[in-house]
């Protein structure tokens, strides 16, 4: 669904360091589960509009089986504000708002809306950071879910594999 | 982000007629706007999981400029139930639930959650239907927004361009 892109939309100049494909590994933890390690691919794609297409998938490092997948849109706004709209394949809609500060994005959910059979989460906080040389993306995801307080759920480190 | 796919997941057998790429045109109407005509591409992709990746974009037939874009997941469940999780690029998260009946899907929103700068909508109803020969997809979208009651907003007809 990526379109050919010309000059970057002015709204995207503050997040151009995100654009591309990233691959790496992460670790999942939570009060209610056994820790697990996962492989991950993340793409932020310029589609010639004032937002980036976001797509992500993970797989088990133990057996290669697919785990999570999500897709959506990253919407930089004025004054360093930014929004992320996420559709999680587990049956959850997520709408986040936050800020961009240099190469760091902080997002907190303003709405987490599961389907009746979807995963249970009520609050999500995401932090995304890219290294000064542009080669490494690290993120953390904290989650309030299944009656547990907000706590670390995911942390991962990915390398740029494609501009 | 599409993965190579082997045998279709059993959950997808009831919606395999949707899988592929569709192109066509539609008409947008609403109490508060001038009617407009748009071109559209829709993709439903098998990613080897019990859900389909959904991606869509529209453009103006008047001047070719991009209009709307959304992406998400279609999740068939048991007993003819189905769920759609949508991230709208206009800054709206949408979670729908409904039913599959033959080649017809009826979905009504259970949550429509805009960002603080996102488009205003509070209720969405989608109907998607594919012709018996599998060549034509028609849909309608009704919307409650900007203080207006639920009413027709979009209707479109698309042809299969790729299996």
| Strand portion of chain A | over 45%
Q: pLDDT below 50 for ≥5 consecutive residues: which ranges of chain A?
A: none
Task: Write down the secondary-structure element order of chain A.
Answer: EEEEEEEEEE
By DSSP, the count of extended strands of chain A is 10
SS-derived structural category of chain A = mainly beta
**Number of helices in the DSSP assignment of chain A:** 0
Can you say what the CATH homologous superfamily of chain A is?
A: Calycin beta-barrel core domain
Whole-number tally of structural domains of chain A: 1
- Which pair of chains has the greatest number of interface residues, and how are they split between the two chains? A-B, 39 and 39 residues
The radius of gyration of chain A is 15 Å
Mean pLDDT of chain A: 94
Structural shape of chain A: globular
Distance between the termini of chain A: 17 Å
Quaternary organisation: homodimer
Strand order of the largest sheet of chain A: 1-2-3-4-5-6-7-8-9-10
Sheet with the most strands, sense and barrel status of chain A: 10 strands, antiparallel, barrel
CATH architecture of chain A: Beta Barrel
The name of the CATH topology of chain A is: Lipocalin
Per CATH, the class of chain A reads Mainly Beta
């Amino acid at each position: 669904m990526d379109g050919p892109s010309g000059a970057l939309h002015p709204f995207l100049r503050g997040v151009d360091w995100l654009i591309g494909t990233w691959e790496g590994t992460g670790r999942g933890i939570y009060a209610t589960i056994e820790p697990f390690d996962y492989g991950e691919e993340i793409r932020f794609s310029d589609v010639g509009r004032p937002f980036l297409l976001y797509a992500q998938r993970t797989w088990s490092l133990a057996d290669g089986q697919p785990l999570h997948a999500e897709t959506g849109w990253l919407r930089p706004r004025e004054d360093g504000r930014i929004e992320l709209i996420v559709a999680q394949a587990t049956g959850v809609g997520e709408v986040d708002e936050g800020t961009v500060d240099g190469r760091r994005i902080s997002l907190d959910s303003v709405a987490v809306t599961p389907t009746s059979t979807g995963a249970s989460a009520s609050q999500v906080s995401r932090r995304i950071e890219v290294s000064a040389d542009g080669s490494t993306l690290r993120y953390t995801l904290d989650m309030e879910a299944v009656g547990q307080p907000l706590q670390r759920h995911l942390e991962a480190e990915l390398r740029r594999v494609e501009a």
